[in-house]
Amino acid sequence: MSLLGWRQWAVDGQGQLRPAWTPWSPFPPGMLLWRADGITQARCLRTKRLDSTTASEPWPGHDRVPDEHRVPDEHCLCGLYAWRTPEILAAARRPRWTALPCVVGVVRLGGRIIIGERGYRAERGYPVAVLDRHGVVSTGYAIARYRTFSALVAEWAPSGPEATGIDRIAG
Ligand SMILES: [Zn+2]
């Protein structure tokens, strides 16, 4: 299975793509990196410590998740996240936890994919296109780069850029 999703990335000091919503500083540097040299594999960030603190467990149904499970698991929160359409991405909030630049773009998802109403959680991902107005994304990524959101959408959305005015995001 393979399909395209729409998402945000935070860009680190080396121009590498990292999660826009998961603060990645507590984790090993390479762990939450979107690789430039190949396919990114999702990992489950649940830990034994978290598993044992059931009283404060924020994830309903966690007890049904096997300790060792294939990522993503439908009862867990793991997986590489992306929204289904550029319209949903455009309506999404911008990350506030980081002062790093953030970019939006398109990712090709593969492996096991859990399909939600608004988005996907996938086992594997590979960034294919970004809106990179200021040239912050490393040239190490073999990725299509756009200066406007409408140009990105025109190229990658299946139905084309009918949503006019969509360029108001990501200013
Ligand atoms: Zn998991």
Q: Key terms for this structure?
A:
171 residues, 3 helices, 7-stranded mixed beta sheet, 2 domains, single chain, 7 strands, mainly beta, disordered C terminus, binds zinc ion
In DSSP terms (H or I, runs of 4 or more residues), the helix count works out at: 3
Helix amount, in percent? 10-25%
Order of helices and strands: EEEHEHEEEH
Return residue spans where pLDDT drops below 50 for at least 5 consecutive residues.
48-58, 160-171
Which radius of gyration do the C-alpha atoms yield? 16 Å
Q: Could you report the average pLDDT, rounded to the nearest whole number?
A: 83
Largest sheet: 7 strands, mixed
Structure summary, number of beta strands: 7
Quote the beta fraction: 25-35%
Question: Which structural category fits the helices and strands?
Answer: mainly beta
In angstroms, what separates the terminal alpha carbons? 34 Å
Question: Looking at the structure, what is the overall shape?
Answer: globular
Q: Compounds present? A: zinc ion
Question: What number of structural domains do the residues give?
Answer: 2
